[in-house]
Design brief:
The protein has 330 residues and is an alpha+beta fold. The protein is 16% helix and 42% strand.
């Protein structure tokens, strides 16, 4: 289990450092961590291959937000799974995963020494082998950085893990051990990677070639999931209810009238009505009323759901969010 957590930590933990409590006589001393590598914008070294979708992932952190976004091409066999803080994650077939992170982060040498080396040669679910590390090597096209690679026996899964990093951007590429590492796809992802100053993300629906661009509201956006037809934004405050959310759906399969009909079948919903390009409804949950609005324009449906109090507080945030959404050209 610890090695699986370790695998995830390499993706998600960008700026956390380990310290010991000086008041604890049994605490192990830790060396002073290396200075955090800060993100620095850079251009892509190549264009996306034909038939690939280019995605853009904005930094979602409410604190110490970099104001930057990663942009890169995604292999056609991959679909995105979630976005959280500064990380975008994608998956394909079993054990084939891609994660791209941006933010202040430790060097991969530090990661190797603190999170990888202690688990080399252990038994069971802590088993890591074949660790290799190199600095000052090409990682994103001709852009030079660090390269860390190792084998991981993670909760019964035999995985090969490759991590590269430069200019505050980290890419993790995971493949099944002993099988194809999809080198051509990996190279296309890293060659097309760019870091730019932007708060814009893109949303691609499953099975569609069209994508929408939008600006996730900060600090309201906690994380973003692939919701099948589009992108589901978990919003805060109010995250304890599933009715606190926003959605972006490019080229929607259901009309506003069809959405309204489905809502009317829910016993918690009242007042589901369509007027022009707008669907509104109320959802009552354990004494709390949530007001939902879905607007459809220019080939995209945009939804926002909040309590009346939050609607009053976030009126400007909502308007800016809706205004930011646009369908991208094919």
């Amino acid at each position: 289990m610890r090695s699986r957590v370790l695998l995830v930590a390499l993706v998600a933990v960008l700026a956390a450092g380990c310290t010991s409590d000086p008041s604890d006589p049994g605490a192990r001393p830790t060396r002073t961590p290396d200075p955090l590598q800060q993100p620095a914008p850079f251009a892509a070294g190549a264009q996306a291959p034909a038939g690939w979708t280019t995605t853009q992932c904005a930094d979602l952190r409410s604190r110490r937000n970099t104001g930057m976004a990663t942009r890169f091409a995604v292999p056609p066999t991959f679909s995105w799974s979630y976005r959280d803080d500064g990380t975008c994650s994608f998956g394909a077939s079993f054990a084939r995963e891609l994660a791209v992170s941006v933010g202040p982060m430790h060097s991969l040498r530090h990661v190797k020494e603190t999170d990888v080396d202690p688990f080399v040669g252990t038994a069971g679910d802590d088993h890591l082998e074949d660790v290799s590390y190199a600095a000052d090597v090409p990682v994103y096209g001709d852009r030079r950085g660090e390269h860390l690679e190792y084998y991981c026996y993670c909760d019964g899964q035999d995985l090969d893990v490759r991590v590269v990093q430069a200019d505050g951007v980290r890419v993790q590429w995971t493949t099944p051990h002993g099988r194809s590492k999809d080198e051509d796809d990996y190279r296309a992802v890293t060659d097309t990677l760019a870091l730019l100053r932007s708060g814009t993300s893109t949303c691609s629906a499953r099975g569609l070639d069209r994508s929408a661009a939008y600006d996730p509201p900060i600090p309201q956006t906690e994380s973003i999931d692939n919701a099948g037809d589009g992108c589901h934004l978990y919003l805060q405050p109010g995250r304890n209810s599933l009715q606190r959310y926003a959605e972006v759906v490019p080229e929607p399969r259901r009309t506003l009238e069809q959405l309204a009909a489905a809502l009317r079948r829910n016993r918690h919903v009242a007042g589901a009505e369509v007027s022009g390009d707008r669907l509104t409804w109320r959802y009552v949950e354990r004494g709390t009323t949530w007001r939902g609005v879905t607007v459809e324009r220019d080939g995209v449906q945009v939804t926002w759901s909040a309590t009346p109090r939050l609607w009053r507080q976030e009126a400007d945030v909502y308007r800016a969010f809706v205004s930011s959404v646009r369908l991208l050209p094919q």
